[in-house]
């Protein structure tokens, strides 16, 4: 092996190995850095979604209180509800602004879900307002329950949106899995806690016992709440040594599970027996809602810990990335300096041959290649260049033959094998261009769809070969009567289509009538013995406004259908 070949083989191998290793390391560090950056943003988006869900859920408290409040308390309760609604609207608007500002296409389904909640919010609020407008003594328990359920039904889209955003966040940073799961569990716990409280709204307002269905629903919600509390112990094992988390968990057990849930248990016992709760919905909210804030404090502790860890990982990834890029640049600089020195010291004898290679590379076949005098590396290169020049001549010749073959194939693919005119695919390709020109420059364009009448009888009586011969003869006759700019194509079977540029409806009708008359007067020979006549039906349409080609064809087809049903051998214009 020559020194020249050995040098280039070693150089290329080293370069590829070095590039692969460097690209792998830089790509890995860049991915870590991007994941760290995205993870902080992802956690914040999940938090905003949970806050919007929380505000929508919290709004049920003032709504329920207002529907069951005493007349003297209504102004104050109305103000509280208005504040809650403003907070809900603000949280949803903030969430939508953040989602829309991000270019991540994965947020599109989430945006649609939040927008659906926003759209459903007003009808749900109107149901609440209608109940407030009805005197308390006349309020129906079913209507109150429906109003409460309307507000509860706003939550499922939030839940699925949180699940989608959690999945996106975990894809950005898998280390967020435990923390985000804990946040979702806490958020779901807060929602189910609110729902079980809302189940008492209608019974408290009407001071009636709980129905069987209400008892069942309350039991189910109790079960879900207990399951979520157990899930916190299982899922959040990694947080067992986290002081802030343990404090928030203890506060949750003391406040909600120690005060809020037992309070509902007392109401449940009353609802099972008498229904004499001796409190209003406002008093119910005042005693039950504050303990639920401990659930949100637990969620916020998890979220703060997630953001802090994500920021630390992001800073570390950034430092590693910078160090990797610096080392890669230094290594590249050293490698190129080494290559330069070797090239100057080793490859100088082949610089003259480089000029010859460059000339051949740009197909400059007039380059004169010197005859090799010696059996060395330069001699081998010159002999190789002679072969390369000869192969270039061959390649140019083959390229010309290939171009000719491609043109022939294009013509074949655009032509109907039987009649020799355009096929359906080529017609659409050419016609779309004509349609675009006509619409752009406000020019006329018309379309004719024709079908040979009773062609099946010809095939049945004289055979398919005779039918094919008649079709070819008819197409030749039609083509002779058209202009060069007109586009004639076989649309299918015995059906043909013609596009007439620069022609309006009236002109197209004249052309169609001319074709119809000529065809009906012409006879076609079969086996040099039989002479038969044919007729054709025509449907004509013209371009109007921004109509599409499919629309023009559909209009012409409808007109053709009328011509067929009207006795055939006639021209019908599209309505």
Key structural traits:
alpha+beta, five-stranded mixed β-sheet, two-stranded antiparallel sheet, 18 helices, 73% helix, flat
Structure write-up:
The protein is α+β, with helices and mostly antiparallel strands and 575 residues long. The chain is built from 18 helices and 7 strands. It has helices at 3-58, 60-67, 74-101, 108-133, 141-152, 155-172, 177-198, 201-206, 212-235, 243-273, 281-346, 351-361, 377-413, 424-440, 455-462, 464-481, 505-521, 549-565, and strands at 445-452, 487-492, 495-501, 523-526, 530-533, 536-542, 571-573. The strands form 2 sheets. A 5-stranded mixed beta sheet has the order 2-3-1-6-7. Strands 4-5 form a two-stranded antiparallel ribbon. α18 (549-565) links the parallel β6 and β7 (571-573). α1 (3-58) packs antiparallel against α6 (155-172) and α4 (108-133) runs antiparallel to α5. The model has no long low-confidence stretch (mean pLDDT 84).
How big is the Rg?
41 Å
Unreliable stretches, pLDDT < 50, 5 or more residues? none
- Average pLDDT confidence is 84
Beta strand %: 5-15%
Kindly name the structural category.
alpha+beta
User: In which range does the helix fraction lie?
Assistant: over 70%
DSSP helical segment count: 18
Q: Strand count, sense and closure of the main sheet?
A: 5 strands, mixed
| Spatial strand arrangement across the major sheet | 2-3-1-6-7
Give the topology, please.
Layout: H1 3-58, H2 60-67, H3 74-101, H4 108-133, H5 141-152, H6 155-172, H7 177-198, H8 201-206, H9 212-235, H10 243-273, H11 281-346, H12 351-361, H13 377-413, H14 424-440, E1 445-452, H15 455-462, H16 464-481, E2 487-492, E3 495-501, H17 505-521, E4 523-526, E5 530-533, E6 536-542, H18 549-565, E7 571-573
Parallel strand pairs: 6-7
Antiparallel strand pairs: 1-3, 1-6, 2-3, 4-5
């Amino acid at each position: 092996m020559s020194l020249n070949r050995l040098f280039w083989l070693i150089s290329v191998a080293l370069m590829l190995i070095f590039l692969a290793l460097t690209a792998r390391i830089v790509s890995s560090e860049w991915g870590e850095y991007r994941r760290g950056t995205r993870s902080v943003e992802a956690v914040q988006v999940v938090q905003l979604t949970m806050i919007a869900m929380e505000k929508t859920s919290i709004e049920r408290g003032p709504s329920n209180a207002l529907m069951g409040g005493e007349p003297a308390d209504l102004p104050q309760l109305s103000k509280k509800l208005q504040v809650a609604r403003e907070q809900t609207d603000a949280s949803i608007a903030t969430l939508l602004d953040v989602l829309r500002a991000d270019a991540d296409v994965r947020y599109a389904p989430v945006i649609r879900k939040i927008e659906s909640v926003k759209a459903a919010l007003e009808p749900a609020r109107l149901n609440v307002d209608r109940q407030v407008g009805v005197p308390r003594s006349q309020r129906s328990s079913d209507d109150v329950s429906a109003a409460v359920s309307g507000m509860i039904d706003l939550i499922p889209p939030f839940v699925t949106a949180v699940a989608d955003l959690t999945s996106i966040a975990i894809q950005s940073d898998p280390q967020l899995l435990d923390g985000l799961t804990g946040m979702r569990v806490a958020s779901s716990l807060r929602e189910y806690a609110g729902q079980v409280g809302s189940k008492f709204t209608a019974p408290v307002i009407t001071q009636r016992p709980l129905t069987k269905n209400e008892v069942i629903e309350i039991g189910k919600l109790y079960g879900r709440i207990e399951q979520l509390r157990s899930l916190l112990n299982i899922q959040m094992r990694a947080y067992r040594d986290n002081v802030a988390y343990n404090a928030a968990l203890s506060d949750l057990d003391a406040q909600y599970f120690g005060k809020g849930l037992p309070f509902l248990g007392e109401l449940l016992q009353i609802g099972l027996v008498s229904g004499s709760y001796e409190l209003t919905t406002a008093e119910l909210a005042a005693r039950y809602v504050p303990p639920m804030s401990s659930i949100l404090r637990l969620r916020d502790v998890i979220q703060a810990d997630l953001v802090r860890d994500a920021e630390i990982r992001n800073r570390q990834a950034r430092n590693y990335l910078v160090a990797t890029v610096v080392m890669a640049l230094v290594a590249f600089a050293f490698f190129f300096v080494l290559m330069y020195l070797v090239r100057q010291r080793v490859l100088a004898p082949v610089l003259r041959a480089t000029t010859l290679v460059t000339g051949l590379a740009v197909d400059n076949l007039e380059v004169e290649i010197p005859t090799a005098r010696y059996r060395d590396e330069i001699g081998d290169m010159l002999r190789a260049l002679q072969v390369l020049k000869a192969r270039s001549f061959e390649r140019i010749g083959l390229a010309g033959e290939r171009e000719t073959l491609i043109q022939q194939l294009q013509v074949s693919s655009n032509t109907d094998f039987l009649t020799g005119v355009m096929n359906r695919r080529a017609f659409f390709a050419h016609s779309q261009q004509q349609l675009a020109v006509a619409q752009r420059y406000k020019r006329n364009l018309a379309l004719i769809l024709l079908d040979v009448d009773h062609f099946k009888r010809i095939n049945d009586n004289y055979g398919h070969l005779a039918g094919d011969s008649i079709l070819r003869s008819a197409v030749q006759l039609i083509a002779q009567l058209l202009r060069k700019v007109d586009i004639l194509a076989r649309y299918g079977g015995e059906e043909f289509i013609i596009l007439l540029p620069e022609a309006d409806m009236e002109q197209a009708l004249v052309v169609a009538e001319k074709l119809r008359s000529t065809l009906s007067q012409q006879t076609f020979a079969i086996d040099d013995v039989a002479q038969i006549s044919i007729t054709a039906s025509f449907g004509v349409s013209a371009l109007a406004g921004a109509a599409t080609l499919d629309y023009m064809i559909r209009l012409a087809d409808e007109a053709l259908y009328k011509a067929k049903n009207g006795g055939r051998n006639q021209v019908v214009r599209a309505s």
